[in-house]
Amino acid sequence: MRDVLRPIVVAPMAGGPSTPELVVAAGRAGALGFLAAGYKTPEAVEAEVRSVRGSSSTYGLNLFVPMPPLRDVAAVERYREALRPEAERYGVELPPIRPADDDHFAAKVAIAVEHRVPLVSFTFGVPPVAVVRALHAAGSAVLITVTTADEARQALAAGPDGLIAQGGDAGGHSATFRPAAYRGDRGAAEVLAEVRAVTDLPVIAAGGADVPGLLRAGAAAVQCGTAFLLAEEAGTRGVQRAAMLSGESVETVVTRAFTGQPARALRNRFVDVYSPLAPVGYPAIHHLTAPIRAAAARRGDAGALNLWAGVNHAAARPAATATLVDQLLSA
Q: Which helix (H) or strand (E) holds 316?
């Protein structure tokens, strides 16, 4: 796997930012780009893999490990009721609660196997050993995202080729196995050191703006997402670009309000109102809030959008991916 890795990994960013163009541009700039399979149909994922495969030999695909069926349906029902004013505000209907959803996991694994994707990473848990073995048989290297040493030990039992140590300063969803207790208060350097202490496998640090520093600390690579949200090749929504470039001093917070899984986002009205009310419940809450977020996006209303971003979001700048890669390496 070490011969496939590059010092900078452009993080998989589900929901639009991770386009094939971004992945290809990352590869040409000497970085490693990841496609984000989350939320997409298998057909859409395969089309993106085909597109990137024809343009770059170095890329990855990120898959979401399916969550267990929803345990506390009643808590999500109460949250659904609390969201009714938002549905009325945006003129949408709240969908029925979906207690289980595997995001087409088996079909997406099959795509990775068929196309021999060079690197396949997993988020939200440990994939079955049989899945890891199938990917290995196809020639793929496997990475599992963790946030603690205990999670790392669980992941190692599946036989991956490396781990991604995600710090709490990273934007977007945390890969934590314990969403109810997660606070996002440990930085990338701390998590990297903790994970490296339990394995000799390559460990990628995620969530740090200090790329040279994390590489010196022993990271096999550094995974960056927020730094590429404003890249010319990224599919980031215009309303998020505007929010990040507004010049306003906006803090980030860890919230379950949008999806039921802890995620770091720019603080906005929705975060303030609904963070205290949101239970653990991914992906049921993701589906529940989706119509609200879609309507807000159509209006250009940042107040009800999941503006995923890391703590260093103010340093992000619009530029070509190649320029951003150079800047990160020389920071």
A: none
**∠ CA(154), CA(136), CA(38), 5° rounding?**
70
Q: Which helix (H) or strand (E) holds 64?
A: strand 59-64
The domain 8-330 having CATH identifier 3.20.20.70: the answer here is yes
Q: Where are the domains of the chain?
A: 8-330
Among positive and negative, which fits the CA dihedral 234, 235, 240, 242? positive
Mean pLDDT of the chain: 96
320, 233 Cβ separation under 8 angstroms: yes
Sole residue written with tokens 């899984």? 261
| Cα–Cα distance measured from residue 267 to residue 324, given in angstroms and rounded to the nearest whole number | 25
Q: Which of 128, 125, 138 is nearest to 106 (CA)?
A: 128
| Runs of H (alpha helix) within 94-200 | 105-114, 129-137, 149-156, 188-196
Summarize pLDDT for 210-248 with one digit per residue, the tens.
Answer: 999 999 999 999 999 999 999 999 999 999 999 999 877
H/E run at residue 104: none
Q: What's the token pair of residue 169?
A: 């300063």
CA 251, CA 248: separation in Å to the nearest integer? Answer: 9
Q: And the tokens for 59?
A: 């890329």
Percent of the chain residues past pLDDT 90, beyond the cut: 94
Helix, strand, coil percentages (3-state) for the chain, rounded to 5, are 40, 15, 45
Q: Which residues contact 113 (CB under 8 A, 6 or more apart)?
A: 134, 135, 137, 138, 140
DSSP class of residue 308 equals B
Residues 213, 324, 189: CA angle, nearest 5 degrees: 25
Residues 10-62 pLDDT 10s: 999 999 999 999 999 999 999 999 999 999 999 999 999 999 998 867 899 99
Greatest CA separation for the chain? 53
